[in-house]
Write a structure and sequence with these properties.
- The complex is a heterodimer of chains A (378) and B (399).
- By secondary structure, chain A is of the alpha+beta class.
- Helix content of chain A is 50%, strand content 16%.
- Chain A has 11 helices and 10 strands.
- In chain A, strands 1-4-5-8 form a 4-stranded mixed beta sheet, covered by helices on one side. A 4-stranded antiparallel beta sheet of chain A has the order 2-3-7-6, with no helix packed on it.
- The two termini of chain A are 26 Å apart.
- Chain B has 399 residues and is of the alpha+beta class.
- Chain B has 3 domains: 123 residues, Orthogonal Bundle (Butyryl-Coa Dehydrogenase, subunit A, domain 1); 108 residues, Butyryl-CoA Dehydrogenase, subunit A, domain 2; 153 residues, Butyryl-CoA Dehydrogenase, subunit A, domain 3 (Up-down Bundle).
- Chain B is 44% helix and 15% strand.
- Chain B has a 4-stranded mixed beta sheet. In chain B, strands 2-3-7-6 form a 4-stranded antiparallel beta sheet, with no helix packed on it.
- In chain B, strand 2 and strand 3 form a beta hairpin.
- The longest helix of chain B has 29 residues.
- The relative contact order of chain B is 0.08.
- The chains are: A alpha+beta (378), B alpha+beta (399).
Chain lengths: 378, 399
């Protein structure tokens, strides 16, 4: 495992950075938020991303993908994170698409749609009582003559508003928090008994509540073999977590750069505030945390791609570190910006809100410390 | 077989034959460290033989030129040698400021005479070196040093005092910074000079630390005469030499707390201490608060090691040293302190042992190690100085 970007990855980073610099995503995010747009992203921009091949990155060439990995997805998402870009690349590709791919779903048109960007598939796994435990599943999957009948409620479905289908975790047996007895099902939005309600988040990202009332599915709607659901879910969420960490890395880097610039420009007591040692040391400490986060993100992505034994533990290292580093950066950014940082008019507040939103996605730092300890055998 | 493969094969069989069995698996044993010098000591008797066989080949300094007694190996060969030594888990045959600090500096800045005189003796471990930088009134502000050197014919006459001389009482020669011009900008009047500590007028006194140990000394100079031939680089150009050498020191200190097998051992010690002092339930640390703290520390440790690796991987890929290398000293040392804090906290009342009955050897050592760790963020450039460097050089913040 080499913690450097190879030539292709550097080129990809450059392309992504160029797109981000041409496109003022933060302005778009603000506008979409203010007009209470239900999808929270631009379909045109997402189509452009698909055209660049980003929606194909982590899928094998057999499946019509680019045959690349999480490391490449991380490169793109880091660039998108710089501008808090709200397009649903992570949810549709790393959650929906990868569930379909790893679960060897028989109807290939869904994965094809994810890969060419014409369809959006979301993962609906969280429930009101599950907090960060993906194995806490109350939604039931009752066997019928022809297939399954699903009933339950899913919350915090990332980019869940306006999706074409959902991957839903449901339980056919076992206790509420048991890994055994969980299966994943593909539920198209148009089938009877599916109801979607928009959730409004602090970071203005698209999220939804999914209510399933006696939804009838054919047996072929199940992903993978029966009983494979929990393992499948874990793999998919691990990949998405590493990708999210890369996005967080981009966002914290940007918030930090903006803050350092501000420290050079803002004059008080006749000098730039960046000349005060009290602030210099705080900025230097934030810098240290971001450098550590970068190493962890690169390692987690590469370990997943290599099928390394330490991959899961490294994903927890990355998410624990990124959650805290991003919050630290954002808190310091607002503090150093002073009063203007508290206004909605200034963009820096968006980074603070995103820091909270990203922290609470796929487990916060405390959750991942627990998981890291368990995976490390203590 | 390629040249490198045959080099590996030869090296392996030579090591199998010559690496003393007593020292195998002792790569991280502090007692296996050999400092050399005029009065060498060996905790393990076979350490002497290990030094003898290795220095005959110049393999105490594998990449240094053969003409000065070094191994003359290329970087890739030296890496193969290191891997083969690692395979047997042998300790390094020789360690110290000669190999780590003054040797590289003399190879870069020294005269031919200085190299011929000093480098072979460093390679052979015959002279133990110490560093004379800090003074009572020149700590973080090192350039304000006052030890005065006045020219008298072909000699300098030196008066003054150095402090925090690591192992000064066991050393034979010192490289030191002296003030040769008091009337210019402070950095421009400093000279880097070499001194035999047996010279008349030199006295060395150990300093007792809060940990009870005395790894550092004060060194006093009273009318000490040093030949101008011992000046490294130009007179009044010592600051440039000093900075180059400080770079070696900082990366050395950072890496000591960083990656590799030492880090693995530290991880095990932390987890074992937690299990032993707090109890376990099915292998899991029983106290959830302390378990969380252990996980937090080890996650930070992992991030630090990965950053060291990222820096190395970048260098191997031909990239210039990135900004990440500036974090090693400050983060590595603070991490070590946090580890000691956590272990003291886990030990509870046993953490207060100083000596005598009622405390295990390990407890007593831990107390002293904790106290010693407080110095990590002071020596070799305080954390505050490191943060200033990051703010200025990396972030470009104004003065």
């Amino acid at each position: 495992m080499k913690l450097v970007l190879d030539d292709d990855q550097q080129l990809l980073a450059k392309t992504a950075a160029e797109l981000v610099s041409r496109d003022d995503a933060l302005k778009r995010l603000r506008r979409l938020r203010d007009e209470k747009n239900e999808n929270g992203y631009s379909k045109e921009v997402y189509a452009k991303m698909a055209e660049l091949g980003w929606t194909a990155i982590p899928f094998s060439t057999d499946q019509g993908g680019a045959g690349l990995g999480v490391a490449e997805m991380a490169v793109v998402l880091e660039a998108l994170g710089r501008a808090l870009t709200p397009e649903p690349l992570l949810s549709s590709v790393m959650l929906g698409g990868r569930s379909l791919a790893l679960g060897r779903f028989s109807e290939s048109s869904w994965l094809d749609g994810v890969i060419d960007g014409s369809k959006r598939v979301c993962l609906a796994y969280q429930e009101p009582g599950s907090r960060f435990d993906a194995h806490h599943v109350e939604t039931s999957a009752e066997k019928t003559t022809n297939g399954y009948r699903i009933t339950g409620e899913k919350v915090h479905v990332l980019d869940g508003s306006g999706a074409d289908a959902y991957i839903v975790s449901a339980r056919s047996s076992g206790d509420t928090a048991a890994a055994a007895g969980i299966d994943l099902f593909v539920v198209p939005t148009r089938v009877g008994g599916v109801e979607v309600a928009v959730q409004r988040r602090v970071d203005a990202r698209n999220a939804a509540i999914l209510r399933l009332e006696r939804v009838e599915l054919p047996a072929t709607a199940r992903l993978g073999a029966s009983g494979e659901g929990a393992a499948l879910l874990d793999s998919v969420i691990d990949g998405a977590t590493a990708a999210l960490c890369a996005e967080m890395l981009g966002s914290m880097s940007e918030a930090f750069d903006r803050t350092v610039e501000y420290m050079k420009e803002r004059v008080q007591f006749g000098v730039p505030i960046g000349s005060f040692q009290a602030l210099k040391h705080r900025a230097a400490r934030v810098f240290v945390e971001i450098e550590l986060a970068r190493s962890a993100v690169m390692a987690a992505a590469r370990a997943l791609d290599a099928g390394d034994d330490r991959a899961r533990a490294l994903v927890s290292v990355a998410k624990a570190k990124c959650s805290e580093a991003f919050l630290l950066t954002a808190n310091e950014a607002v503090q150093i910006h002073g009063g203007i940082g508290m206004t909605d008019e200034h963009d820096i507040g968006f980074f603070l809100k995103r820091a909270r939103g990203a922290e609470m996605t796929f487990g916060d730092a405390a959750f991942h410390r627990q998981r890291f300890a368990a995976l490390s055998g203590y | 077989m390629s040249d490198l493969e045959s080099f590996r094969a030869e090296t392996r069989s030579w090591l199998e034959k010559n690496a003393p069995s007593e020292l195998r698996q002792k790569a991280t044993d502090p007692d296996a460290i050999v400092w050399g010098g005029r009065r060498p000591t060996y905790v393990y008797p076979q350490s002497k033989r290990w030094l003898d066989v290795m220095r005959e080949r110049g393999w105490t300094a594998p990449t240094w030129p053969k003409e000065y007694g070094g191994g003359g190996l290329s970087k890739v060969e030296a890496k193969v040698l290191a891997e083969e030594i690692f395979r047997l888990e042998m300790p390094p045959p020789l360690y110290g400021f000669g190999l780590q600090m003054i040797g590289p500096t003399l190879l870069q800045y020294g005269t031919e005479e200085q190299r011929t005189e000093h480098i072979p003796r460093i390679v052979r471990g015959e002279i133990r070196w110490c560093q004379g930088y800090s003074e009572p009134n020149a700590g973080s502000d090192l350039a304000s040093l006052q030890t005065r050197a006045v020219r008298d014919g072909d000699h300098f006459v030196v008066n003054g005092q150095k402090v925090w001389t690591s192992y000064g009482n066991f050393s034979d020669w010192m490289f030191l910074l002296v003030r040769t011009d008091p009337d210019v900008k402070k950095q421009s009047g400093i000279t880097f000079i070499l001194l035999d500590l047996e010279t008349e007028g030199v006295s060395v006194k150990p300093i007792k630390l809060i940990s009870g140990a005395s790894p550092f000394c004060e060194t006093f100079f009273q009318d000490v005469r040093i030949s101008v031939e011992n000046v490294v680089s130009e007179i009044n150009a010592g600051w440039t030499v000093a900075k180059a050498l400080l770079g070696h020191e900082r990366s050395m200190i950072g890496s000591v707390f960083g990656a590799g097998r030492r880090a693995k051992k530290r991880t095990d010690v932390l987890v074992e201490t937690a299990r032993r002092t707090l109890g376990e339930r099915e292998g899991r640390i029983q106290d959830d608060v302390q378990r969380d703290r252990v996980a937090e520390l080890l996650i930070d440790q992992a991030c630090f090691e990965l950053t060291v690796q990222r820096s190395h991987d970048g260098a191997k890929a031909g990239q210039k040293p990135g900004p990440e290398s500036s974090i090693f000293k400050v983060y590595g040392t603070e991490l070590n302190q946090r580890r000691h804090e956590a272990m003291q906290s886990m030990r509870g009342p046993s953490a207060v042992g100083w000596e005598g009955p009622g405390f295990s050897e390990e407890d007593l050592q831990q107390t002293r190690d904790w106290l010693r760790s407080r110095g990590n963020t002071i020596e070799g450039g305080t954390s505050e100085v490191q943060l200033n460097i990051i703010a200025k050089r990396v972030l470009g913040l104004p003065d």
